[in-house]
Amino acid sequence: MSLFPSRSISASMSSGGSFTHDKVVRDVLNAAQDVANAANGMTSHKNESRKLSNEIQRIATCVETSSLRAHHAGRPLVISVPARCALTITKDIFKQCVTVMTKETGRDMFKQLQKQRKTSTAIEDMSRACDAISDVLMANGNDCGLLEDPTTAGPTLPNEDRRDDLRLEVSGLTPAYDGIKSVILGMLVKHVENGMAAAVRITDLLAEVQSQWELVAEWNGSDIGNERLRPHIEAFFENVFCVFIRLRILHATHPIRRVVGTESFDNILQEESRKFSEATEKLKLSLALSSSSAIDRVEGQIGSLVVAVNGVAELVTPAASTTDGNISRIPPPQPHVFHGRDDTIRQIVDAILLYLFKMIAANIAILGAGGIGKTSLALAVLHSERIVAKFGQRRFFLSCEPYTNAAEVIAALAKLFSVTTTNEPVQAIVSHLASQPHTILVLDNLETVWLVRDDTVRSQTELLLRHLGSIKTLSLIITCRGIILPRGIDWANASTASLEPFSAIAAIKTFDAIARTSKNDAESERTAVLDLITAVDCMPLAVNLLAELVQCGNKPFDLLRHWNESHTAMLQTYPNGRESNVAASIEVSISLLTAGSNGNEPLQLLAICAHLPSGLRTTVFDQLKPHFEDLDSASRCLKSFALISAGPQGELKMLSPIRHFVLKAHPMTADHHAAMRRIYFNIAASAPTEPSEEFTTKSTAVAAEYENLNVFLLHLINTEEPSQSLVDAVRAVSGYAYLTTPSVTLLVALRSRLDGHAIWLAECCTNIGQIYLALCDYASAINALLQASEIYNRIGDRRRAAYCALLLGSCQRNQGFYEVAIQRYTAARDSFLEFQDHLNASQCLLSLGDIAANQGKYEDAKQYLTSALSAFTGVSKHRYYAAQCSSSLGRIYTLEGDFAMADTELQTAQSEYQAIGNQLGIGQCMAMLGNLRRRQRDFSSAEELLVSAREQFIRMGVPMEQAHCIYDIGQLRRDQGRVQEALEAFRTAAQIYERVGAARNLENCRLAIEGLDNEQI
Predict the structure, then answer these.
(1) What is the rounded CA–CA span in Å between residue 772 and residue 778?
(2) What are phi and psi of 828, to 5 degrees?
(3) Long-range contacts of 898-904 (CB under 8 A, 24+ apart)
(4) Which of 397, 700, 858, 883 counts the highest number of beta carbons within 10 A?
């Protein structure tokens, strides 16, 4: 017969429907039923089991009654965070009761515990835990006070009107803590051994809580951005109460830790410490991002509050920590967000357990740059399931950051392991650990006592590590900046000790988990997130800090703009501390570098590398050697501190946050700056700026250094007066880009510095106009070309003014303004012929032919193009223009239906473009061949060519050509009878045409859409 009847989780409603309890309530009721079933099956300890089961039934009945009462009163049961916390622990304790009652291991525990403690049994200890649960839930009579009385559940900010004055909200919430105070003080006086001392600490703590609310009320919501700040204040105080609830229950269950499980006991304590720290940090972060004169006072009070809560934890579990604030027997909690290192964790754990199986010491090193995630990885290993199962409470963590030498670390280890100091403290520690069960120790931030200039300190640290590494029962993990392993130790992971940045996937997962963003966010926001992560090279610390800034209300797009303006300076959530400030973390590495190396050459090389985002390549490295005493040694030194690393081709690279920090804080010397200037001006001078058969070969050097050239030349533009050599270098690199991936970045920056230099300014504007024309930004192109034309006409350079007219004609042709374009081309051609410039005169004919073709005047078009082609044919340097003529002729033959001639001309043009390496021409020919195949009804080939061409134009960033391809794909879908896909393609093309101002093309799209709509009707 059951000790109490089964409960229905869905209770009947008076209205005839059904009512379902909140999930956490259902979990408690189900666990209570499991206890009853287990008690019925007990063959021993029947009386104790019946008593325990009856008590659990009473608690469950109180919870159920409160839930039903809320429903019958017509109001929802709102379970506060602290109350939900208490119910979750209640469920876990009930489940442990079932384990004790039903498992053979549980019966063995009975006997074991009875031998150890004469005064109680395991069942009695479980009863004591249930008493604690009853007190916390206030399960008196027939209801559960913690669920029913809102004043005992901690603060909940009202939702009725979020715009209410903050003072009114706070004044209504403060009394809640009077109820909390009485409950908690009652718990401590009843159950905590040193109850009076703890009560004093609790009273002090609650006074701090009270003053926090009063201070928040003073702000009156006027200048703190309270919509953003309020949820963090709420979470902070809810967690204060949750900490008390869990510590109270943990203390009550302390005698049955072997039944409940050491792991769960410690993990709950660690989890609450993490939650409290997280709530505190979020509150601090919100305050840091708000502007208020009260912030300093608030942060000081938060610090006092943290100290008070930690003090209470020490009273409840006095063995948990030592007197040194840096030394704790409980390791720091594991990171609450941790992605991308699963394989590394598994490898380290496998190595540790394998070495233990072989009865030898397992020594693990975790190396890398500052902010790369070394400490987080060590803690993840320390808290991994298999490590916890193997080592239990024998898991220790010591940060070496506060110490300056090995002697201080030794003293800290002695305190950590409670070893009495002697004249031979190292030997005492070794003997102690050798006599203990298997132990795992993390020495974090070892660089502070190892990467130092003092050889004696370094040697003593290595000697200490060798002593620790020789203990067979000790698994040692170190984290250290750099990539050099301490000598004299067998490192189990020597070949994989250095950490790399996150993978892109891990970085995105980490960002989303912290910032609470997701792939379903708006496309613009998602793009900004991906750009941010890419901008910081997936550096873990930088990703975490950016995500925290987003979590606090900053928009990813705004942060990306801020990054582009200030770079590493924005990567902080607090001004100081290397865990919350990327610049501070990097500065630690720089200071270690200057302290641990001889001379300034490593730092000088670092300053050079900072200007080269794609890395210092071997060819440039060799040219710099005459300017250093020992460049190879400086390189090795920087690698050892993980400030640079070797890329796939041996180039020396830096992570983006480090690079931007060094750029600002450590400039190059004058000699090195001059050397870099000469080297990169020579590379720029080698850049091909005209299409030719040798284009690919000549591009080798500039292609490899293209990103470096852009960054270094931009630096020169912003820091020195314009010179002929600088102007030539910028125009050369931009000319090369025009033929590959058009960009105006350098030219626009240079234009702003050329006031008073008329010729340079006109040349620069002409080049800007050419590139904007290629990018289909016609408005910007026309503005630049008109500025250049005005200067040329003013100084009497009619030939260059004519070239501007040629380019202006192309802008107006592409916009569909054919008559104006014809006038421009005709006038420009007359000027070119006057100056015997037959090349540019023929270019005018080519363009006039294109306009005639667009107007349907095919015979005129062919006459223009054939005449132009004859001028270009046979001249090697004119192959590009000859290819343009052939492709235009191929388009005309396609429109006329002469597919054989069209195919011949287009194949000829494509071969020419491929020979001279012109990517834009290759893409245009693919698109025209795709349109030809469509007209030939070869739809499969047409789709393949058009899609490939579109992808090419997307890579090049040429929207007009993309739109042409999409329009042609729409025609293909129409011919295939796929009307909806055709409409979608035409609409997409129309959007691009509208954006670039191509009126005639936009009208063609409108007519195509109208025609399909009419067909559907």
Answers:
(1) 7
(2) -65, -40
(3) 899/932, 899/935, 899/936, 902/932, 903/929, 903/932
(4) 883
Task: Decide if 733 contacts 702 (C-beta within 8 A).
Answer: yes
Reduce the DSSP state of residue 10 to 3 states and report it. Answer: strand
pLDDT at 537 over 90: no
Q: How confident is the model at residue 281, as a pLDDT?
A: 55
Distance CA 811, CA 785 (A): 10
Q: What single letter denotes the amino acid at residue 1001?
A: N
Kindly report each contact of residues 17-26 with a partner whose C-beta sits within 8 Å and lies 24 or more positions away, as own/partner.
Answer: 19/68, 19/71, 21/64, 21/67, 22/67, 22/77, 22/79, 24/79, 24/84, 24/87, 24/88, 24/91, 25/63, 25/64, 25/67, 25/77, 25/79, 25/87
d(CA 324, CA 412) in angstroms, rounded, equals 8
The burial of 41, by beta-carbon neighbours within 10 Å (0-12 exposed, 13-18 middle, 19 or more buried), is given as: exposed
Output the pLDDT for position 844: 92
Q: The tokens of 134 are what? A: 């009853």
Q: Phi first, then psi: what are they for 989, rounded to 5°?
A: -60, -40
Question: What gap in Å lies between CA 814 and CA 623, rounded to an integer?
Answer: 47
pLDDT at 16 over 50: no
Q: Are 96 and 260 in contact (CB under 8 A)?
A: yes
Please answer whether residues 488 and 460 qualify as being in contact, where contact means their C-beta atoms are separated by less than 8 angstroms.
no
Contact yes or no for 362/355 (Cβ under 8 A):
yes
CA distance 481 to 644: 12
Q: List CB contacts of 942: < 8 A, sequence separation 6 or more.
A: 930, 931, 933, 934, 972
Structure tokens at 96: 């442990």
Fill in the amino acid letter for 21. H
pLDDT of 675 over the 90 cut: yes
pTM: 0.57
Per-residue model confidence as pLDDT tens digits over 472-509: 889 999 998 888 888 888 898 888 888 888 888 888 88
Average pLDDT on 317-345 reads: 69
